[in-house]
C-alpha cells in the first residue's frame, strides 16, 4: 500500500502478531502451582501450592547439560518430531518412572505430575509446569522441592541431512541433600535417564542405533548456601513421609467414606 | 545452523556503567552476540544495563541465556539491571523468577540513577 497510513497499518499488524505469538507460547504468570485433574495413582503433595524455581533459587553448582541425537531427515522433520515428543512424552522415559501428562497435553501453563523411582525402591513424587511450548521446542520448569531447580528444554532443529533432537537442562540441585546425591552418582543417573529418553525418541522414528551425544558444562562452581533452607520443601523427604503414612491412610479410608456418605445423607 | 536474529549495541553513559541496546529476537542462538556485548559493556564497569525496548521476541532459550549472563556478572561483581521490558516480558521475568536477581526499571534514567 502506498497510502501515507500504509506503513503504520503494517506495523500494527506485526505488533499484534508478535503479541499473539507471545501469548500462545508462554505460560501465564502464576505465583503458586495448582493441580487439576490429577490421576488417582499420582500424588500432588509436592506440587500443589508450590512456587516455581529457576536456577537462581537453587542450591548446588549450576550445570548446563545438553543431550543430542541425530535422526536422518528422511525419517522425520523437526516440527513432526516435537509434535510426537509432546504427544508421547511419557512413553520415551525409562521404566519405573512416570510422567502424568496433563489431560490437555503439553501446553503452556499446564502442570504435570511425576513419580520417579529412587534407590531403595523409594518413590519420589514431584511435578513440572510447562513454561513454554511452540512447534519446535517446549520447556518444563520445576517447582520447590524438586531434585533440581531450573528447566529443561526439548527442541528439534535441522542440521545438514539430519533432524537433531535435543534436551538441554539448566539446573542447580535444589538443596544440600540433592547436591550430595548428585555428587554420589545422581548426576550420572540423570545423564543416563535423558540418554535413554533420546535414544527412545530416535528409535521411535526408526533410528535404532543412534548415539546420544552428551555435553556437560559447569556454568557456576559456587554453591548458593543462602538457599540451604530449600530442604524444607524436599520432595524426597516429603514423599518418604507420605509413603510411610500409606498404611494408616488405607486403614482410615473406609471410615472417611462412611463419614462422607453420612454427611451426604 | 540457525542464525542469530538479535543485534546488540553497547554504550557507556559513564565509566562505571555499560548499556546494551537489544534489538530483535533473543533465543539460544543469540549466545555469542549477547556474551560479546556483555564483554564490551562490562569492561571496567560495576553495572551492566540491558535495554529491552527493541526486543521483539524471546523464547525459553533466551531466558536461559540471561541466567547464564547473570552468573557471569555475579562472578565479575557486577550488577545486572534492565529496563524497557513490555508488560508481557515483565511477567515472564516474574514467572521465571529472574526479577529476583535482575533489577527492573521503567526507563533508562531510573536504571542509571540506581547504579
Write the layout of secondary structure elements.
The complex is a heterodimer of chains A (265) and B (115).
Chain A: H1 6-25, E1 52-53, E2 62-72, H2 78-87, E3 98-100, E4 111-117, E5 123-133, E6 137-143, E7 148-159, E8 162-173, H3 176-204, E9 213-220, H4 235-244, H5 246-264
Antiparallel strand pairs in A: 1-6, 2-8, 2-9, 3-4, 4-5, 5-6, 6-7, 7-8
Chain B: E1 6-14, E2 17-26, H1 31-42, E3 47-58, H2 60-75, E4 79-83, H3 87-95, E5 103-105, H4 108-114
Parallel strand pairs in B: 2-3, 3-4, 4-5
Antiparallel strand pairs in B: 1-2
Structural description of this entry:
The complex is a heterodimer of chains A (265) and B (115). Chain A is α+β, with helices and mostly antiparallel strands and 265 residues long. Chain A has a domain at 41-223: START domain (Alpha-D-Glucose-1,6-Bisphosphate, Chain A, domain 4, 2-Layer Sandwich). Chain A has helices spanning 6-25, 78-87, 176-204, 235-244, 246-264, and strands spanning 52-53, 62-72, 98-100, 111-117, 123-133, 137-143, 148-159, 162-173, 213-220. The longest helix of chain A is centred in the C-terminal third of the chain and has 29 residues, at 176-204. Chain A is globular. The termini of chain A are far apart. Residues 1-7 of chain A have low confidence and may be disordered. Chain B is an alpha/beta fold and 115 residues long. Chain B has a single domain (6-114), classed as Transcription Regulator spoIIAA (2-Layer Sandwich). Chain B has a 5-stranded mixed beta sheet. In chain B, strand 4 (79-83), helix 3 (87-95) and strand 5 form a beta-alpha-beta unit. In chain B, helix 1 runs parallel beside helix 2. Chain B is globular and about 30 Å long. At the A-B interface, helix 1, strand 1, strand 6 and strand 7 of A face helix 2 and helix 3 of B.
Amino acid at each position: 500500500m502506498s497510502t501515507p497510513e500504509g506503513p503504520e497499518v503494517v506495523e500494527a499488524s506485526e505488533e499484534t502478531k508478535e503479541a499473539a505469538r507471545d501469548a500462545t507460547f508462554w505460560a501465564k504468570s502464576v505465583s503458586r502451582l495448582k493441580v487439576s485433574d490429577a490421576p488417582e495413582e499420582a500424588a500432588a503433595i509436592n506440587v500443589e501450592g508450590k512456587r516455581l524455581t529457576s536456577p537462581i533459587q537453587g542450591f548446588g553448582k549450576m550445570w548446563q547439560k545438553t543431550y543430542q541425537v541425530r535422526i536422518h531427515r528422511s525419517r522425520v522433520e523437526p516440527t513432526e518430531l516435537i509434535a510426537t515428543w509432546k504427544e508421547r512424552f511419557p512413553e520415551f522415559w525409562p521404566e519405573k518412572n512416570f510422567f502424568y501428562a496433563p489431560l490437555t497435553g503439553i501446553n503452556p501453563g499446564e502442570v504435570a505430575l511425576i513419580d520417579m523411582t529412587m534407590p531403595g525402591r523409594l518413590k519420589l513424587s514431584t511435578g513440572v509446569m510447562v513454561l513454554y511450548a511452540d512447534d519446535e521446542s517446549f520447556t518444563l520448569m520445576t517447582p520447590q522441592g524438586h531434585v533440581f531447580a531450573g528447566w529443561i528444554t526439548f527442541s528439534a532443529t535441522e542440521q545438514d541431512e539430519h533432524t537433531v533432537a535435543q534436551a538441554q537442562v539448566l539446573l542447580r540441585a535444589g538443596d544440600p541433600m540433592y547436591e550430595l546425591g548428585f555428587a554420589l552418582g545422581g548426576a550420572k543417573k540423570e545423564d543416563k535417564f535423558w540418554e535413554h529418553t533420546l535414544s527412545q525418541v530416535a528409535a521411535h522414528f526408526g533410528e535404532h542405533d543412534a548415539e546420544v551425544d552428551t555435553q556437560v558444562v559447569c556454568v557456576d562452581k559456587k554453591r548458593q548456601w543462602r538457599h540451604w533452607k530449600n530442604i524444607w520443601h524436599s520432595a524426597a523427604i516429603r514423599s518418604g513421609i507420605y509413603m510411610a503414612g500409606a498404611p494408616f491412610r488405607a486403614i482410615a479410608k473406609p471410615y472417611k467414606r462412611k463419614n462422607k456418605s453420612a454427611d451426604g445423607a | 545452523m540457525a542464525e542469530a536474529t538479535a543485534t546488540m549495541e553497547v554504550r557507556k553513559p559513564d565509566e562505571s556503567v555499560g548499556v546494551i541496546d537489544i534489538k530483535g529476537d533473543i533465543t539460544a542462538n543469540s549466545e555469542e552476540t549477547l556474551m560479546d556485548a556483555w564483554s564490551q559493556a562490562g569492561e571496567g564497569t560495576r553495572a551492566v544495563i540491558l535495554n529491552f525496548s527493541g526486543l521483539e521476541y524471546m523464547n525459553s532459550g533466551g531466558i536461559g541465556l540471561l541466567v547464564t549472563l547473570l552468573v557471569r556478572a555475579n562472578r565479575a561483581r557486577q550488577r545486572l539491571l534492565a529496563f524497557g521490558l513490555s508488560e508481557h516480558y515483565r511477567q515472564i521475568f516474574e514467572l521465571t523468577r529472574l526479577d529476583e536477581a535482575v533489577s527492573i526499571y521503567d526507563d533508562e534514567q531510573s536504571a542509571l540513577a540506581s547504579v
